[in-house]
Amino acid sequence: MLVAAVVLLGIGVVSAPAQAAGGRDGIVNVAPGMRAATLRCRTPNPLVIEVCAIFLPHGERLRPDADAFLGDSVRWALKGTSYGVGDVAIFVKEKTNVPGITTTLYVPASGGMYRILVVSDPTAVVPSELHFSAARESATARREAARAAAAAAQTRAEATRAALVEAEHRAQQRALVEEIERSPCERRVDADYVSPRGSDPAQFAPTDVYNDGVHTCLELPKAYAGLAIPYAGHDLLHFRWDEARRMLIVDGLPATITLRDGSQSVVVQRR
After folding, report:
1. How many Å apart are CA 76 and CA 89, to the nearest integer?
2. pLDDT tens, the chain, 271 aa long
3. What does the alpha-carbon distance between residue 135 and residue 148 come to, in Å, rounded to a whole number?
4. For 236, how many CA atoms within 13 A lie in the half-sphere containing its CB?
């Protein structure tokens, strides 16, 4: 298990409470979910620097609002903190060279407070390691996690299918618009327009009005020789004139179009 480390300098063999396992080679494993154990650390040797390590469960980090601290700061000293890739190390040294003295090391981490009883012991084996393990998930928690993962996968699959359908629909719409742009007013989608009215509708009132879903198509009388200009209110609309069909082709589907020729006007309104 990849773990965050709290390393203690100048200390030796680790022994843990009943929940710990192992330790003959200096490595002790603490039962999953436990956050308390005991370190039996070698009494300082002036000729040898021993290192003892406490490993927190994978994913644990020291809390940013609190530091690791010792109950007895007179005979024990924190020697600093180092951060590695996935590791946190806190160094401690026993200062008095007196066997049997104890203190408590508190390590505030993201998963809770870890409490380690530190004991100075001249017979300790070095190096030693104390490994805390993450709490095991219960069978119910695993089932719930599996159900949540399956639901999330189904949601992602449905979202992907919906996105594909939407993309296909948009592609079809683009293809239709492109086809209509190539041949405007060839398709009759909606012809529900109010009969023209105006100052003199007989002159250039459209004989036929409909739309193809993209353009509004106004067929003007063959006898009309002028050119009526389409407006939406006071705004000039974008249009083109098809002489062969005597048709005014207006971009878009305005609800109301006013055709103007000089002082005369005709209003065409979509129902």
Report:
1. 16
2. 333 444 444 444 334 444 444 455 667 777 777 778 887 777 666 666 566 777 777 777 888 887 778 888 888 777 666 665 556 666 667 777 788 888 888 888 887 888 888 788 777 777 667 777 776 666 777 788 888 888 999 999 999 999 999 999 898 888 888 888 888 998 899 999 987 765 555 688 899 999 998 899 999 998 888 889 999 988 999 999 999 999 999 999 999 999 999 888 899 998 8
3. 20
4. 6
Strand boundaries in the chain, DSSP class E: 4-9, 21-22, 27-29, 36-41, 51-56, 69-70, 76-83, 88-94, 102-109, 112-120, 128-131, 193-198, 208-211, 215-219, 229-232, 235-236, 239-242, 247-251, 256-261, 264-270
- CA torsion 173-247-200-253 (nearest 10°) is 10
Q: Which residue has the tokens 């003295």?
A: 101
User: Sheet harboring 256-261: ordered strands across?
Assistant: 193-198, 264-270, 256-261, 229-232, 235-236
